[in-house]
Predict the structure.
Amino acid sequence: DAGVIQSPRHEVTEMGQEVTLRCKPISGHDYLFWYRQTMMRGLELLIYFNNNVPIDDSGMPEDRFSAKMPNASFSTLKIQPSEPRDSAVYFCASSFKTGGFNYGYTFGSGTRLTVV
Amino acid sequence: GENVEQHPSTLSVQEGDSAVIKCTYSDSASNYFPWYKQELGKRPQLIIDIRSNVGEKKDQRIAVTLNKTAKHFSLHITETQPEDSAVYFCAASHKAAGNKLTFGGGTRVLVKP
């Protein structure tokens, strides 16, 4: 398995532009997570899906952020309009759960977003 | 919700010495406690995990202990090597919140040759 695949690896955009980050989870994993990492706030969970359904989006900072998971193999995180304070590394992770425990929680390589 | 505190935030050790990182969690229902290592510019990678039905787990030079009564768990790295230098994160999974992991703030470990 190629692991969790994210694209693009780097994104530089101007303030006000729309940004779309993409993620392909590991096949067979039924949970998908979007995290944001900054020096100041560490690793923050933004939203997570179970079987393509959003379960908890309480970490999404504001309405400018939205996430979708149209099928089991693809998810997007969109920021519209982007602002400089959105600059961070965005990680996608996937896992599966059985017997009440988590298994295989794996991160993608991340997207480093810079908003200028 | 779950809250995970991690200490220390930075740790400098001499090569060959041991390193210990401690985490506390708030929700007694949490049942899964992984540790991740993140090298500069790379993704967090799972290095060891422990579940609530055991108190200790070891994998070569790393070990994790769990005290559910006190709600804390620790990572122990023995015979540290320069390649152990990285940021280490602990996390806890809240049972009622599915697979959602709450992370500690991270510990930057520097192993001096």
